[in-house]
Amino acid sequence: MSTATTGSTGYVNPTGDFRRDQRYIETRITADGRDGYPVEADRYRLIVSRACPWANRAIIVRRLLGLEPVLSMGIAGPTHDERSWTFDLDPDGRDPVLGIERLQEAFFARYPGYDRGITVPAIVDVPTGKVVTNDFPQITVDLSLEWTQFHREGAPQLYPEHLRAEIDAVNRDVFRDVNNGVYRAGFAGTQEAYQRAHDRLFARLDALSERLEHQRYLVGDTITEADVRLFTTLARFDPVYHGHFKCNRQKLSEMPVLSAYFRDLYQTPGFGDTTDVLHIKQHYYGVHRDINPTGVVPAGPDLSGWLEPHGREALGGRPFGDGTPPPPPVEAEVVPAGHRPV
């Protein structure tokens, strides 16, 4: 898994199908604090790596909802070893708020001998230094539903009640065949397992293209949680999944509807300006040594097309519904120059 340590440097399943360990810490931070962790300003720290698609979701949602003033964010480097993500981007190699060198320390503080993946995104309770949750699908939903008292004025409804069942259905298909499907192709250990994952992935992408041909967003006429979840995989498709994971029937840039849909989101505040392509490439090509033994990071591809007009406005839709775009990212969280097409 690109987002978790595993106790070894191997990711490919030599017997066939890749199986993702989905045993996450299911503790929730809620408005009523029923799990012992109530929503509070300045109490928690969201730990991410910009390389990770699951963490990228949390970065986008936090930004769209305007939670930066109350939920701080620590950014780990793009690579990790068998033990943990590390804070090597910080000057002294320690997270400046938690004071730790490795995310593993926060997991062990709560669960000594924790034997599952040390994954991002994770939310840490700052006063105790203990991890609260790394349940990435629930984290973004709870940011939308439980943190409402701290949403910015004009925050969009990313998980509106009247669309929730449809969003959940789309998310299930997208996770199975696309979000996780690229990993099932990339980490397959037999030709047959790879072919199954490859075919399922592109069948779903074809279905998504049909769905999006006449509507601007996946569900309803505004951006929702479903769009956030698909976007982070599409952002990594041409830079890493097409070549590194052998998802190469076509590039995203060769799929007209999905490419335009992606460009529309990429050019929307909160999406492209949180996407770090350099970190993405450094992670996948540097960490998955059983796929890329040399660790050499490719120079390409040319992603300048991400900035080309998309024409999706013609389909109508209102990106933020009755809300407004988020303000520019805070200075400390700006993706460095040269890490994405501008």
Descriptors for this entry?
four-stranded mixed β-sheet, Glutathione S-transferase Yfyf (Class Pi), Chain A, domain 2, 10 helices, mainly alpha, about 30% helix, single chain, about 350 residues, globular, disordered N terminus
Describe this protein's structure.
This protein has helices at 53-65, 104-110, 136-145, 164-179, 181-186, 191-212, 225-234, 237-241, 256-266, 277-287, and strands at 44-49, 72-76, 122-125, 130-133. It is mainly alpha-helical. The chain has a domain at 161-333: Glutathione S-transferase Yfyf (Class Pi), Chain A, domain 2. Strands 2-1-3-4 form a four-stranded mixed beta sheet. β1 (44-49), α1 (53-65) and β2 form a beta-alpha-beta unit. GO terms for molecular function: glutathione transferase activity. One of its GO terms (cellular component) is cytoplasm. Residues 160-287 form the GST C-terminal domain.
Give a quick summary of the entry.
With 342 residues, the chain is mainly α. The chain has a domain at 161-333: Glutathione S-transferase Yfyf (Class Pi), Chain A, domain 2 (Up-down Bundle), CATH 1.20.1050.
CATH architecture of one domain: Up-down Bundle
User: How many angstroms separate the termini?
Assistant: 30 Å
Shape: globular
SS elements, strand count: 4
The rounded Rg comes to: 19 Å
The largest sheet, given as strand count, sense and whether it forms a barrel, is: 4 strands, mixed
What structural class do the secondary elements suggest? mainly alpha
CATH topology of one domain: Glutathione S-transferase Yfyf (Class Pi), Chain A, domain 2
Strand order of the largest sheet: 2-1-3-4
Q: Give the CATH level 1 class of one domain.
A: Mainly Alpha
- How many helices? The count is 10
- Classify the beta-strand content into a percent band: 5-15%
Series of H and E elements: EHEHEEHHHHHHHH
Low-confidence stretches: 1-8
- Determine the oligomeric state from the structure: single chain
Provide mean pLDDT, rounded: 95
Helix content: 25-40%
